[in-house]
Amino acid sequence: MSKKKVVLATRNKGKVLEFNERFGEIGWEIVPLPEDAPEVIEDGLTFEENASKKARSAAFFCGLPALSDDSGLEVDALNGAPGVFSARYAGEHATDEQNNQKLLQALRHIPEQERSARFVCALAFVDCTRKSQVAQPLIVRGTCAGRIVDIPRGKNGFGYDPLLFIPELGKTIAEMTIEEKHRISHRGEAIRHMIDLIRTEHE
Ligand SMILES: O=P(O)(O)OP(=O)(O)OP(=O)(O)OC[C@H]1O[C@@H](n2cnc3c(O)ncnc32)[C@H](O)[C@@H]1O
Ligand SMILES: [Mg+2]
Fold first, then answer.
1. Ligand 1: residues within 6 Å at CB?
2. Mind telling me which Pfam families this protein's record contains (predicted)?
3. How far, in whole angstroms, is CA 195 from its chain's centroid?
4. Could you list the residue range(s) of the whole structural domain that residue 135 is in?
C-alpha cells in the first residue's frame, strides 16, 4: 500500500527533527511545508486554536492532509507567560537566545522552589480528504513539567530546552538525546496521543 502524504505545517527545524520518522508506523509520509506557503498569523488565545489555524492553512494551500504543532512554555510565577507568545517573547523576530535571556531576567528574583513551569504542545491534523475534519481538526495536547534553572544547561534540542530542568531525570531537556526527549516531552506525548486517535478514527 502506498504511504499517505501529510504536510508538516511548521517552519521550525527543531520540531521537524522531532517529527521525523514518528508517523511511519501509521503509514504516513511526512512532506515539508513548501517555501511559498502563506504565513499564518498566530493570534489564537490557545495553543489548540493556533495549531488548527496552521494545519488548515497548509491543508488548503497544499491540497493535502496537514499536521501542525503549536507549543510553548508556561511559567507559574509569570501566570502562565510566555505561553502562546513563547516564540516572540523578546520581540517579533526574537532568537531562542533572546527569549531565554528575557525569561531568565524575568525570573531573577524568584527562588528555585517557585520556578515551576511546563512545556505544552498542541497538535492539529486536518484531513482535507475527509470533509468533517476541515471544520473540526483532530486535536491533542501533551505537557512536560519541570522547573526553570538560573543558568542555561545543555546544547541539544532548541528553544527553551536549556532552561527546563526535569527533576526526575536530573537534567535539562537540552542535556537529553532526541530519544530521551521524545520519551518525556510534551511533543512526544502529543505525538503518541495523535497516533492513537488516528488509529481509532480509522478502525
Ligand atoms: O509556528 P511554527 O512554524 O511551527 O514554528 P515556531 O517556532 O514559531 O513555533 P510556535 O509558534 O509553536 O512557538 C513555539 C515556541 O516555543 C518554543 N518551543 C516549542 N517547543 C519547544 C521544545 O520542545 N523545546 C524548547 N522550546 C520549545 C519554541 O522555541 C518557540 O519559541
Ligand atoms: Mg510560530
1. 10-12, 15, 42, 69-72, 86-87, 96, 99, 119, 157-161, 185, 187
2. Ham1p_like
3. 15
4. 4-201
Q: How many C-beta atoms surround the C-beta of residue 147 within 10 A?
A: 20
Residue 183, domain CATH = 3.90.950.10
Total domain count, the chain: 1
Q: How far is the CA of 165 from the centre of ligand 2 (A)?
A: 23
* Per-residue model confidence (pLDDT) at position 128: 79
Note if 43 is an active site residue. Answer: no
0.80 exceeded by pTM: yes
3-state secondary structure of 89: coil
Does the predicted interface ipTM exceed a cut of 0.85?
Answer: yes
Burial (CB < 10 A; 0-12, 13-18, 19+), residue 188, is: buried
- The active-site residue out of 36, 43, 69, 70 is 70
- 43-73: pLDDT as tens digits: 999 999 999 999 999 999 999 999 999 999 9
